[in-house]
Amino acid sequence: MTKSILAVNAGSSSVKITFYTVENPPRTIVDAAISGITAPPPTLKYQQGDKKHKEEVKEKLSTPQDTFKYLLQRCFSDPDLSEVASVDDLEFICHRVVHGGDYLDAVEINDETLDRLKGLEDLAPLHNFSALEIVRLCKVELPKVRSITYFDSAFHQTIPEAVRTYPINQEIAKANGLRKYGFHGISYSFILRSVAQFLNKPIEKTNLVVMHIGSGASICAIKDGKSVDTSMGLTPLAGLPGATRSGSIDPSLVFHYTNEAGKLSQSSTSEMHISTAEDILNKQSGWKALTGTTDFSQIAVENPPSKAHKLAFDIFVDRIQGYIGSYYVKLNGELDGVVFAGGIGEKSALLRRTLVDKCQCLGLAIDDVANDKGPGDEETVKDISKGSGKGPRVLVCQTNEQFEMAYHCACSRS
Ligand SMILES: Nc1ncnc2c1ncn2[C@@H]1O[C@H](COP(=O)(O)OP(=O)(O)O)[C@@H](O)[C@H]1O
Ligand SMILES: CC(=O)OP(=O)(O)O
Ligand SMILES: [Mg+2]
């Protein structure tokens, strides 16, 4: 029997795994995800063919490693799943690692690359930690399966120097790798390829403003198929606010927030050295701080339950609108489309309509019926623009980071 590819997407609060066939393009065998690890009880979502279900997880899953092992076992023990029944059925494991530092492409894990990635952990303690914990586990427990890491930052290596450089002492900046990296690149790569194909344009001639807005949110300007700017920076904290992240603030705010801000946070461990300020701005801000919920579907409603919910919605619209305006100008107004993606971008018709209404001066217009309906299950890209006008298309793309990794893995093998 042919072997399969396992793609792992570990976030700060969720672990998603998908098994694919090793073919080009890969075919999904099974999809399993656990979310809410940081706000128990965690929930499991499992999908194999038409079989779909959701359940609360009773076991205590306190680490990304436990969560990954639980998901793997859940798939291996499914009696209806003959294609993946044990580790022996695996050929590759693809891991999404958010921060790849200066890595320009995916790398295979060995002692040397793992060491280099370890050195990046301090630059992205909240994001790389979970993924690397799982990479380490696979190396020890599944030593025969090749592990490949794919980096969110790699897509943004084309960002010009003047955009990626922070105006600080350049010796210090270079010595410490302090520059804009940008993230969600695995997702942007999937979206770019899917949208170019949808528009029937070569990738290298495609110009887009793409929003990946989920619990972490960012936006990217793509010119001639290359990232020329994005809202996240040295870390995923910069730019747009998110479920628990503040997004960009005046950096001096940190020094006025509390006297404790510069000290090590309680979540700091021997592997993860994070300060109280990083902890507050990454984990205790955003929608959670403003409204008490991290679930944007409770905020993006016609009649918000409180003024705070309305404010959170308005803040998000304001920040995104600012970036769309800026990126429209950076692309010289020559864009093929504005794309909504990520959990919020794909599901919130209200956010899409509000934003497009506020960007009318750029020639954007939305078809209310198409927008309210959103994309169908099998529809990767949907055009929700009004008429067949000359302005940029307004599109929704159902992004898929696990597929993107498996796709590149299968391509590099064949
Ligand atoms: N109908 C909806 N309207 C607005 N937001 C939604 C809707 N459905 C899901 N979301 C939001 O999408 C976010 C999750 O996005 P997703 O990209 O799937 O997650 P992650 O960033 O964890 O990968 C959550 O904040 C969730 O509340
Ligand atoms: C980079 C980033 O913010 O990732 P996520 O949205 O998965 O948290
Ligand atoms: Mg995500």
- Number of helices, where a helix is a run of at least 4 consecutive DSSP H or I residues: 14
Query: What does the average pLDDT come to?
Result: 93
**Compounds present?**
adenosine-5'-diphosphate, acetylphosphate, magnesium ion
What is the percentage of strand-forming residues? 15-25%
Q: Give the uncertain stretches in residue-range form.
A: none
Q: Specify the overall morphology.
A: globular
Give the N-to-C terminal Cα separation: 18 Å
Major sheet attributes: 8 strands, mixed
**Biggest sheet: strands side by side, in what order?**
5-4-3-2-1-6-8-7
EC number: 2.7.2.1
Active site: 152 (proton donor/acceptor)
Protein name: Probable acetate kinase
Keywords: ATP-binding, Kinase, Magnesium, Metal-binding, Nucleotide-binding, Transferase
Any overview of this molecule?
The chain is an alpha/beta fold and 414 residues long. 34% of the residues lie in helices and 20% in strands. The chain has an 8-stranded mixed sheet, sandwiched between helices. Strands 11-10-9-12-14-13 form a 6-stranded mixed sheet, sandwiched between helices. Strand 1 (4-10) and strand 2 (14-21) form a beta hairpin. Helix 6 crosses helix 14 and helix 10 crosses helix 12. The longest helix is centred in the last third of the chain and has 24 residues, at 307-330. The chain is globular. The relative contact order is 0.12. The chain binds adenosine-5'-diphosphate, acetylphosphate and magnesium ion.
In short:
With 414 residues, the chain is an alpha/beta fold. 34% of the residues lie in helices and 20% in strands. Residues 11, 14, 214-216, 243, 295-297, 300, 342-344, 347-348 line the site of adenosine-5'-diphosphate.
